[in-house]
Fold this sequence. Notes:
The protein is α/β, with parallel strands linked by helices. The protein has ten helices and seven strands. A seven-stranded parallel β-sheet has the order 3-2-1-4-5-6-7, with helices on both faces. The protein is globular. About 35% of the residues are buried.
Amino acid sequence: MRRWSLIVYQKLAALGGNFFRIEWIFFVALYNFRQLELNPLPRRRLKESQALVTGASSGIGREIALQLATAGAHVLAVARRQNRLDDLVTEFHSLRDSQPKSKTGANDKAGSITPISGDLTIESDRQRWADWCQTNWGGLDILVNNAGSGAIGRFDTSSPERVRKLMEVDFFGPVELTRACLPLLKQRSKTNRPAIVMVGSVLAHRAVPLKSEYCAAKFALRGWAESLRCELAGERIEVLQIDPTTTRSEFLDSLIDTPAGTKSESIGSMSPQRVATLTIQAIERSKRRMVLSVGGRLLLSASRWFPGIVDRILSR
């Protein structure tokens, strides 16, 4: 129904008239960047699935790991801070123990979280995580590339090291971890539909000033993911792109080569819990790409239809 509504609105807008042109802009904003599936795939089963989540010590990654495990998945949670990963496991155990149990005293949705610290930009750490999955699980169902960093400031006053550091964390790290995990995902593709999940950003579609390096990294990751999706389609491995807007997390506390206390100007924000919930839904429903907020979709639609005006607004 949504597909036919889109076609009807497009035809009406083409006929002319300000009313339908305005309605068309808002319609596209609401439905833009959402997957239109004629033959939806069966809902992905999370219980007993095995997932690797990067950046799981805080923010979106922490919530994704927690919600996956609460749904019954077995999660390898990786990040640099072991103490924060241990706190995540403690919180999960508290949640699991508080859930209703079956007559046998067992929790029917009992997943697990295994914490392993490491640095996404170090090859030996990436391989260690992949080796753990092979040894303990014999494969991998879901890879969530969530870990990332940012930077704020003018490009002409930044150092060459800033863009290189950012690309290592936001692009090369996820790319090379995916390379290490592909054999594990392919092992599961014969019986399941493995998924590679890219947690990107609205800024993977529309760049803004003072975040040039971050936008470049997210654009690169999205472009690579789209190509990878087509390459792996024949092997039943899905590549999902999730693009949240500004999230209320510790992200701004660890900016690269950026003065302490620097603020990020944005309109509206989402909680990590909300982003994680929508990401889990996208994984279950095999949504190839999702821009999570209405504000984000409005920005992208305005950029598509009025690029000059949006450029002038952002340049102020």
